[in-house]
Design brief:
Blueprint: E1 2-3, E2 7-14, E3 17-27, H1 30-41, H2 51-60, E4 62-65, E5 68-71, H3 73-95, H4 98-102, E6 106-109, H5 117-127, E7 132-135, H6 142-155, E8 163-167, E9 172-176
Parallel strand pairs: 6-7
Antiparallel strand pairs: 1-2, 2-3, 4-5, 8-9
Helix pairs in contact: 1-2, 1-3, 3-5
């Protein structure tokens, strides 16, 4: 699972290859950030806050409002739990069947969402008894590395340079093959 700001994406790979019908792309953490925005907006004027500023505040766990540091941890926990309950879990139930879960013994998590303990807790509650759940090193860069490796299939034996590009809502990452 790639837990991104714009999208959450899944893929299931077995020894036989990728299971196409177990792949999906759903709304990412921006859904939870919007829940946070709506809740804060009831008490504070957030008109001046950009999506990037709120994403930073969501990640950092606090926001300065009217010259006061506002703790967002309780807001963030509720927003993540609502996001998981309303979007993630129902979508995963539609795409990842019990038959697919029977083939699954490990779940790897990547993307910026790995940095949110509350989101990892939701995933562990749903899948922790079914599979070992792992967070990867450098979770924000795994997708672009995967795109780079996939591009190798199309450039093998040619003079073209393989490139991986992960175009996100908050940032874009580019990876190129390093010759050793």
């Amino acid at each position: 699972m790639s837990l991104g700001f714009g999208t959450l994406e899944t893929g299931l790979s077995t020894d036989e290859g990728v299971v196409e019908h177990a792949m999906t792309s759903i709304q990412g953490l921006h859904y939870a950030v919007n829940i946070l925005r709506e809740e804060l907006q009831q008490e504070h004027d957030l008109a001046f806050q950009s999506v990037q500023q709120l994403d930073d505040a969501f990640r950092d766990g606090y926001l300065y409002i009217n010259r006061r540091k506002t703790d967002l941890s309780a807001y963030r926990k509720r927003a993540i739990q609502a996001y998981y309950t309303e979007i993630v879990s129902p979508s995963l139930r539609l795409i990842i069947s019990d038959k697919n879960l029977k083939k699954t013994n490990q779940i790897f998590l990547c993307g910026g969402g790995v940095n949110y303990h509350d989101l990892l807790e939701c995933i562990n509650q749903e899948f922790g008894e079914i599979a070992d759940i792992h967070t990867v090193d450098e979770p924000e860069t795994l997708a672009v590395q995967g795109y780079l490796l996939n591009s190798l299939r199309f450039t093998a034996g040619s003079t073209k340079t393989p490139v991986g590009i992960d175009m996100g809502n908050i940032q874009t990452r580019v990876a190129i093959l390093q010759e050793s």
